[in-house]
Amino acid sequence: TQRETSNQLGRFVYTHMKSLAESRMPRDRKISKACQKALRLCRPFDLGIQYSQSSKFQAFDESLEMGASVDIQTVSDKRSVLPRAATAKLSYQALGRSINFLEAGVRATGVQTIIDSVYRQNKNRKSVFDNLKKKSQHSSQEYRDSPRSESRQRTPQDIEAEKIQSKLNIKTRSEEDPSAQIYLKIFGNEVTFQHIDSTLLKQIVRDDSLAIPDIEQQLREGSETKLTKAHLIAEASHRIPSILGLPIDIAMKSLVLTKSEIGGKMTVSPGLFHEDRPSDQKDVSAIEASLSSTHSIAMQTTGTVTIDCRVIKSGFEMDISMNSVIPIPHKITVDLKNRQH
Predict the structure, then answer these.
(1) Radius of gyration over every alpha carbon of the chain, rounded to an integer in angstroms
(2) Looking at residue 172, what is its pLDDT?
């Protein structure tokens, strides 16, 4: 990192090597010693949290040779104060093996555009950045209006710079379309992956402001969500030699399919948000919410025992299926005025 010019890349590499150098996990012993030696020649990048970085949190017991670690990595961009990507990984160390138990990550682009549009509409709220921007514009206007700026003559360097700038085809960089991807892994296998495109994000923020009335209307009408996931529980096969010289093949496969349907709605009287309530009734009087969910589980187990005679194959197959449905309806009513529920 001595000649690294990018602060984003330099900080990520430096913090990642520093985390590995301080690691106490048995899996990182070799690379930990190498990173300790390499850090002596590295240039430190002790910058703020708005830069990319890698962090590691560990808990390890030397006597039991067991422990756990949490790795958090963020990748940032100079155009946004929020990270473009973030991952968190939970690992478990036991019996000389390292297991990636859980991993979650998110990648987002254009989120800074949405945040800027929301705060841009709130003219009553002034931040320190607005004051600095206003002060800078005021100082620039005073400099342009001052007689000193009018009497200043252009130098040959200024004339040459204006000629070069007029020939350059400079275009303003367009804003990125907001999008996001979220994934979840368990034991290294991806369980879910969700892609949120710009259309869905623009529904949340419309006309550079939060669509708060639409949220309340959607809660009153209710919403439903369906989740379906298939898992392979077990798959095994075994070949047993027989006295006749013909192998006996035993195979088993088990699959499970889970399906969940969740729906609910909520009504707040007189209104969910303080701005939408009447002037004579600013407190919430009643809350009514209903939640219904139906969960179904289907499991199928198939087992085969075959004898392969090359020309003729014989055997038998066993197929077991199970299906169960669990409905869970629930309704909650809270009367804050009479203190009843």
Answers:
(1) 31
(2) 59
